[in-house]
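Hey Z.,

So I finally got round to the zinc ion thing we talked about over coffee. Here's the setup:
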Amino acid sequence: MRIAIWIVACGLSVAWAQKDGEKRSAGAHEHGAGKLSMAFEGLKGSWEWEIPMESIIGFEYQPSTPADKKKLADALETVRTRMAEMVVLPAASGCALTVGKADGIYKDHGDHMHSDLNASGTIVCRSAVQGEIRFAFQKHFPKVHKTTVQFLSEAVQTGAEIVDDRGTLRIGQ
Ligand SMILES: [Zn+2]
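And the result:
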């Protein structure tokens, strides 16, 4: 139940942040830096990845040319099909990561535009996640330099800051 509340609270803070883009850009919107959260209830989890669009496609305006539209569509397709290569869960836990959605969220600041990738989905495991979670964002998105990772389950609440895909997030012993 605690986890369900956490997810709802998280959703609310995102909704609030989108309404108040200036406040958000002062804190959360840093090019090259993203946030990844994973929350488990039993063997089922959900994940959310947020990162400035600049770090994914090199620009943040709403694409209008066919070339820019293709860049955006290709990047979102990469997230939809390759996310499990970028967030590598411990093999022994037998997890399957799937993508529910991957969208660009646009925020007009008057004189300039910011946008973030917002992607989310589910993780279903055969046994509780235990071991090291590795990251390979730069395999597909070389400009993803820093990711603040949070992991939450009934037994574990932990996190790590992953820089240039180095290091791991260790869950359990
Ligand atoms: Zn930006």
